[in-house]
Amino acid sequence: MAGALQKAGTYHPFVIPVSASRFLTCTACEDSSIHIFSNTGRKLLPSLMLNSPVSRLTSCRQYLMAITQKGNLFVWNVQKSKAVIRNESLMTVMSGDDHIVRAFVTADGAPTVSISTHKSFTYSPDLGCWILLYDKQDVIHHSSDHHSCTPPVLVDKPGPLASLASSSNRLGMQGGRIFSVDQSLQQVTTINHLESQMAASLSLQSGSEYKFWLQTYVRYLAKEGLETKIRESV
Q1: 119 phi and psi angles, rounded to 5 deg
Q2: Which of 59, 117, 195, 230 is geometrically suited to a Cys-Cys bond with 19, CB 3.0 to 4.6 A?
Q3: DSSP state, 56?
């Protein structure tokens, strides 16, 4: 990686973000360019020119994600020399004084952006729009019987969906107290939460998390005697 960084410096003196994975090293420069190298210093792609300088640059395996200062998102599969997401605006999910708190790309190329409104999103090329993955302030969501449930095998190394959840469960506890008196509403919110977790896991292409939430969902439906929904899910 050191060789790649030294070589990057020969292309432009004003290097800003730098990102590295096991497969590649990337640098972004003030002239809105991105330079991508192997970890031995070989240039993997021509210099990429974006619409403004990069504010965030992150990579995982063969995937590279960039967010520009104008708020546009790009994701590339460097191994295949292919754009996965092209110039999608974050202004769809951000406004006013909102700012990005965290941004990363998963091992399967799914971008994840968490913003200061305590919401996290991914962009789906298949659906052509942004998808809400997590909303800390969604009281109904946190009223689920399983709002604080986490896949046991992922506790030490959480998957991309689990990593979005706040370590504080104060909001969920308050929601549970508000709705615990109404069992029918508690059932509806729990089902909604579990179905949302499954859909979010699929959007992030997180197979282990999807399997966990599907199993949890089926067990809950069986406990509640909802045979019709069980047949829909299997």
Answers
A1: -120, 150
A2: 59
A3: E
Structure token pair of residue 229: 């929904």
Please give the model's pTM, rounded to 2 decimal places. Answer: 0.82
Tokens 């191994």 found at? 79
User: Whole-angstrom Cα distance, residue 84 to residue 62?
Assistant: 12
Position 228 scores a pLDDT of 86
Residue keyed to tokens 């031995």: 40
Using one digit for the tens of pLDDT, what is the confidence trace for 48-91?
A: 999 999 999 999 999 999 999 999 999 999 999 999 999 999 99
Q: Which helix (H) or strand (E) holds 66?
A: strand 63-68
Q: Are 133 and 122 in contact (CB under 8 A)?
A: yes
CATH 2.130.10.10 in the chain, residue ranges: 1-135
Q: Which amino acid is at 215?
A: Q
Residues 6+ apart with CB under 8 A from 196: 141
From 36-50, 111-125, 174-188, 201-215, the region with the lowest mean pLDDT: 174-188
Give the residue carrying structure tokens 């020119």.
49
Neighbours of 99 (CB within 10 A): 9
